[in-house]
Structures are given as structure tokens and as C-alpha cells.
Amino acid sequence: MTAETSQTLDRGLRVLKLLADTDHGLTVTELSNKLGVNRTVVYRLLATLEQHALVRRDLGGRARVGLGVLRLGRQVHPLVREAALPALRSLAEDIGATAHLTLVDGTDALAVAVVEPTWTDYHVAYRAGFRHPLEQGAAGRAILAARQNPGTDPGFSLTHGELQAGASGVAAPLLGVTGVEGSVGVVMLADSVPERVGPRVADAAREVSDALR
Q1: With pLDDT > 90 as the criterion, what percentage of the chain qualifies?
Q2: Contact 109, 137 (CB under 8 A)
Q3: Residue 200 pLDDT > 90, yes or no?
Q4: Which of 48, 74, 109, 189 has its Cβ near the most Cβ atoms within 10 Å?
Q5: 111 membership: H or E segment, kind and range
Q6: Cα–Cα distance for residue pair 57/27, rounded to 1 Å
Q7: How far is the C-alpha of 167 from the C-alpha of 157, rounded, in Å?
Q8: pLDDT at residue 27, rounded to an integer
């Protein structure tokens, strides 16, 4: 810990990260052991975080992430979208297809940024805010592939006609970005996807991942 940083804030953020990594919550004793501090310090940290609704404690005394984090999370989409736009623009212009950034929203895939090519005679209309089940469409399938193979690069996913008749989709997951689960992809009116599209989409996904780290 350097002189320019706050030990208390650091511990509070570590508490939130620990709680975010568990589905069943943690007790004061468990947090104390994981943080390497005494229980009194943990009590103070939890009380402060509870005041801001970032932490809640159930009847059994286990601490969990509170609903207050949702208010913070709503501000993530604009930041992610801004970071992804240069790569999406380049991808859309290069491939001549609509490019999109899709993030997980509950059990759905949610398009948070869309860029259409400027030089094509026609392209698929795809709007930010469009959502679909993760099990359908290349964007969702790419995300699920990354979930099923943690720590590896599953490459790209390709689908045809799952979301729009006559449209093919190619997407690759964002990898190595803490707290962000999503994919970068393109959608085009084509029965078959040119061979170079998959690797180009995977490159764009890596570019966005690098921008978000």
C-alpha cells in the first residue's frame, strides 16, 4: 500500500470483490480470514457498505452484494460502448456488415452498441437495445462458449437464420475483461459467410478486450 492510496477503501473494495465471487455470501469470520484483518475492521467495513446499499446481510448474518451496485452497473454500458466503437467501426467498414457489441443482461444477450457500414447498398438493420436469449444467435453462443471453456479462447461462433430469416451471424467473445461478459460480432444477409469474416471478428473482439482492460 503506497502513501497515495487509502487502506480502508482498498479493503472495502476487496470485500465487494469477495462477495461478488460467491453465490451464498460470506460471514464476518470468513471475510476476516480472507482479508487478513480482525473482525472489528470487517464489521466497520460492512456497516459502511450497507449504508450505501452496496452490501446487505441476511438473517443468518451472511453478507452479500447489495442492490446499490445495480445503480453503479447502469453506468458501465456507456463506458464499454465508447471503448468499443473504434473497433466496431473498423469491423463494419472492413466486412461491409453491421457490427455489434453484445453484453450479458440476466439470461439475455443485449446489444449495447451497433455500427452499420457506410458504403454498402444494403445491410441488416440491427439496433442497440435489441435482446435475445443467450442460446440463440451468434452473439449469445459466443458468450456461452467462453463460459464453458474458461481460460481458453473458443474462437468464433457462426449461426444462420436464428434471429432473422436469411441473416447469418458471426461473433467472438470478449476475453480477460474483469466484470464484463460479452461478445463482438457481425450480422449479414448471406447464406454463407466468407472465410475471412470469422478471424476478422475474432481480431475485433480481442481489440475491444484490450481497450477494456
Answers
A1: 71
A2: yes
A3: yes
A4: 109
A5: strand 108-115
A6: 9
A7: 14
A8: 95
